[in-house]
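Structural prep section.
Before we set up the soaks we want a predicted structure of the protein with S-adenosylmethionine in place, mainly to decide which crystallisation condition to try first. Input record follows.
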Amino acid sequence: MNKNEFVIGTCENYTHDGQGVVKIDGYPIFVKGIIRGEKAKIQIMKDKKTYAYGRVAELLEVSAHRIKPKCLVYGKCGGCQLQHMDREAQQDFKREKVQDVVTRIAKLPIRVNPVLDMEVPFAYRNKGQIPVDVKHGSVKTGFYRIHSNDIVDIEQCLIQSEVINEILQVIKKDLKVYKNGKDLRHLLIKHAFSTGEAMVVFISRNRDIPHLDEMIAHIQTVYPKLKTVIVNLNQRTDNVILGNCEYIVYGDGYIVDELQGLKFYISSKSFYQINPVQTVKLYQQVLAYADLTGQEKVLDLYCGVGTISLFLAGQAKLVTGIEIVPEAIADALRNVALNNIDNVNFVCSDAASYAKELVKKQQQPDVIVVDPPRKGCDEITLKAMIKMEPQKIVYVSCDPATLARDLKVLCENGYEVQAIQPVDMFPQTYHVETVVSLVRKNPDAYVDVTIDMDELDLTASETKATYQEIKDYIFEKYNVKVSSLYIAQVKQKYGIIERENYNKTKSDDSKQPKCPVDKENLIAEALRYFKMI
Ligand SMILES: C[S@@+](CC[C@H](N)C(=O)[O-])C[C@H]1O[C@@H](n2cnc3c(N)ncnc32)[C@H](O)[C@@H]1O
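Run finished without errors. Recording the tokens verbatim:
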């Protein structure tokens, strides 16, 4: 297949980032914006030998699930990927995405539940992290164009709260009037839906932002519930958005939100779920799967500002929340006091170190809830969880691939998955949140693996992923297939001893294909991810 060539094909399926897969004689072409069953004339944009990227030149058969995207910059801005699909097609895509990894990576013969949908799937984001570019009197605020650092200048984002859009427009206007935004990198705006309170963080290379007081006053006239304004100093040269140093220039540095009668302090750096309407459904599912009687000791690993811990507290004997970010733990501690709860502890610690310590002290929670970041639980945390033998584990995840990887480990070590519930926390995008209920099997029903304490102190060379796991990881993340031979070559390059048959050519003069540099980089990244190098 050649660049710019046109082919006609039908979309058979989707990649995990929502692109359609069209196969021509078994050769996959990844195409954005096409729906399963649709036939199209496709222009090849990039040919990669074993697969290609294409674009729809003309739709020849249109799906009944196709709708007109609401957003004017859909397709240019990288934020949403599924606005051309109706709700049913979006939910099918998300359920199948979770089902695929559950079957293929975790190898579990269980059917994933239908996705818990959102009734009004727009204006749901309570947090906007908006890049700013002020140059020669022009002010651009918006989102990065796909695969680039160019800002798509937009007036409003339809998945973002209207309050955030409104505040953003006021700031943008003032930046033009005062010509004062040259040092600004990002604006972070948080909006607590239930109380209406808003926080604005100016992320700047320079602490002094001229006319800041006038700008704050202007925002307040338009939005009186502006509660706090912070200047975050970020002089880093990488892509990390928030710097370490912050100056509260107005208010107390936090806002308060309420979920199901519980109040939560939120500061600029703390993690707080971005879709409060769906968060309530998510947490209710966690509660249902934890199935508490009031007698249980619960461990909530990766607890953020303690939201899940406080939800569980009413039905548990004792909840201990563990979180690595000190600001989030400070918020969590204030949240305990704010809600008059006396059966919750919070500890600022790495989840792995804390769990390992509990194993050493032979402490056994009855239920463990985990809600890790995208990379999932590390192996030390998983092994410590298994060693603690809780009766139930509730796993909350925003990345189905790492979730499936971790479920496989848990299910090979005494746990059984009872139910898998996806929740649509991110409508219009390819992301999906998932809650899984696991119970400890009867010890007679499985072969127990003995894990010594020494094993918890894993070194890099002891953690190993199989060839298939490496292939799956790269395919999940980049839609790229790599061969075992290429993986073997890269492992050898990094000094990981390799099996004979992959290392040696079959005869001296036979030629083996050499792993190309782009695939080598992906494999090396996967090896790093699995802590093999
Ligand atoms: C997906 S959030 C979940 C937070 C919370 N459960 C909620 O629903 O709001 C993951 C949290 O894990 C924290 N975290 C990341 N790495 C960690 C680690 N190694 N140990 C403990 N917490 C960690 C992050 O700071 C973040 O607050």
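Observations: The chain has four domains: 1-66, 127-259, 275-456, 461-529.
Flagged for discussion at group meeting.
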